[in-house]
């Protein structure tokens, strides 16, 4: 009987040791996972702040006291080493983009065609953009516009007023995801121009100008002066005051962070901020 009790006790001890080993293994795995998560979050935070430093660097460079030190806001990438990160910063002045609320129908159609839409579809979507942003002249016109969206299966109609955001373009009749993603980086609601400034317009926006093909636009951009001292002073004069900044930071281990901001420069004045943020986004998604 005593030996039987000793055997049971030994078995219980073995089970307890096994259970304890399992628990310790679980805790060790959990601690390891939490350590990896903490390391990842630290690296992501470091990359994020490096990208944020890139945005601040761009804001300063756009209004540097010495005009020769200012950056050209036409989308070219400026490298900026920060701490342990490599930061690439590009700036596009909003005056170089196609304004959804001010661009002529021809400019809009050219933009959509350059982005891949066939000519007929490009003209149709351009007219839909104009209808969306324009106040109707009669109740009949309001009803006609709403009926077109209803017939397309939409549960909404056009705004019948100016675009409130670039993202709103996705709601326009005829617009699809592929076309929107192609044109979103080169459209704006902040320039007020009927056509983009050819001195700073990126490729698709430049190709929206009447008589300008994609090939001609690419050649024009290639002929712009490099971002070296004194070479781009003429282009700097066309920078405007409202800009979209994209800052991408990459750490040595490959951790990456992207920040995109639209800012309006307000000049250096005592007691006031030198810029206003109109839009702030993390990542490359819209």
From TrEMBL:
Domain T2SS protein K first SAM-like: 101-190
InterPro entries recorded: GspK, GspK_central_sf, T2SSK_SAM-like_1st
Location in or out of the cell: Cell inner membrane
Keywords (A to Z) from UniProt: Cell inner membrane, Cell membrane, Membrane, Protein transport, Transmembrane, Transmembrane helix, Transport
Gene3D superfamilies (alphabetical): EpsJ-like
Segments traversing the membrane: none
Family listed: Belongs to the GSP K family.
Protein name stated in the entry: Type II secretion system protein K
Annotated organism of origin: Dyella lipolytica
């Amino acid at each position: 009987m005593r030996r039987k009790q000793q055997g049971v006790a030994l078995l219980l001890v073995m089970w307890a040791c096994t259970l304890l080993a399992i628990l310790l293994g679980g805790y060790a795995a959990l601690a390891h996972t939490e350590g990896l998560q903490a390391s990842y979050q630290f690296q992501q935070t470091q990359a994020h702040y490096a990208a944020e430093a890139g945005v601040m660097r761009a804001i300063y460079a756009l209004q540097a006291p010495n005009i020769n030190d200012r950056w050209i806001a036409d989308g070219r990438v400026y490298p900026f080493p920060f701490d342990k990160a490599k930061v690439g910063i590009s700036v596009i002045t909003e005056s170089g983009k196609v304004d959804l609320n001010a661009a002529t129908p021809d400019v809009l159609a050219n933009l959509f065609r350059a982005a891949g839409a066939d000519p007929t579809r490009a003209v149709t979507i351009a007219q839909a953009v104009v209808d969306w942003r324009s106040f109707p002249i009669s109740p009949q016109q309001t009803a006609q516009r709403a009926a077109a969206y209803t017939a397309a299966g939409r549960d909404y109609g056009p705004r019948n007023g100016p675009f409130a955001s670039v993202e709103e373009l996705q709601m326009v009749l005829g617009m699809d995801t592929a076309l929107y993603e192609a044109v979103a980086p080169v459209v704006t609601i902040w320039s007020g121009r009927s056509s983009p400034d050819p001195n700073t317009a990126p490729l698709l926006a430049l190709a929206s100008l009447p008589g300008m093909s994609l090939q001609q636009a690419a050649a024009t951009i290639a002929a712009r002066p490099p971002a070296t001292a004194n070479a781009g002073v003429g282009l700097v004069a066309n920078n405007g005051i409202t800009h979209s900044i994209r800052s991408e930071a990459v750490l040595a281990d490959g951790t990456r962070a992207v920040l995109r901001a639209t800012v309006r420069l307000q000049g250096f004045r005592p007691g006031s901020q030198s810029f206003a943020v109109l839009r702030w986004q993390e990542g490359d998604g819209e």
